[in-house]
Design a protein that fits this description.
This protein is mostly helical. It has helices at residues 7-10, 17-31, 41-48, 52-56, 86-97, 107-121, 131-151; strands spanning 38-39, 64-68, 74-78, 105-106. It binds calcium ion (2 copies).
């Protein structure tokens, strides 16, 4: 066991599958500001440190926009409010997490996500995340964040 702790370490997944459930419970309780037992889109954005508009803005259907420049040329550009924008992807992830489709995330729905993530990181499936597995997961997460940043 390493005694040293830091903010970065506090963000990591718990070491065991048992530890996961209690950590998710605490996380959920902290995120559920109005204590209705559900995370709405604004609460979820706040908990993830995202701009609220990413999850609350109305989205356009068109992924791309056609723009005509003054010289008459037509250019295809990514619609910043479309389904392939950063908010569009966040939207998609939120809806995928909302298993019963009621528009909010319950503790059970957040647990499903957390367990899936834990199991994906726990490569040898012994219910414990060792240092190697955690490091690999961090690199994976950074790659995902990088990708999300590229899409906007
Ligand atoms: Ca709530
Ligand atoms: Ca739900």
């Amino acid at each position: 066991m390493v005694a040293m702790t830091s903010a970065a370490h506090a963000q990591q997944l718990p070491m065991t599958r048992e530890g996961l459930d209690s950590a998710v419970g605490q996380y959920f309780a902290g995120a559920d500001r109005n204590r209705d037992g559900r995370l709405d889109r604004a609460e979820t954005a706040d908990a993830l440190g995202l701009a609220r508009s990413l999850l609350t803005a109305r989205r356009d259907v068109e992924p791309f926009l056609l723009e005509q420049s003054p010289d008459g040329r037509v250019r295809l550009s990514l619609n910043a409010n479309g389904p392939l924008s950063q908010g569009g992807v966040a939207d998609l992830l939120y809806r995928a997490a909302d298993g019963d489709g009621d528009g909010t995330l319950s503790l059970a729905e957040v647990r499903v996500l957390a367990r899936a993530r834990f199991d994906a990181v726990d490569r040898d499936h012994d219910g414990i995340l060792d240092e190697k597995e955690r490091e690999a997961a961090e690199e994976q997460l950074n790659a995902a964040q990088w990708l999300l940043g590229r899409i906007s």
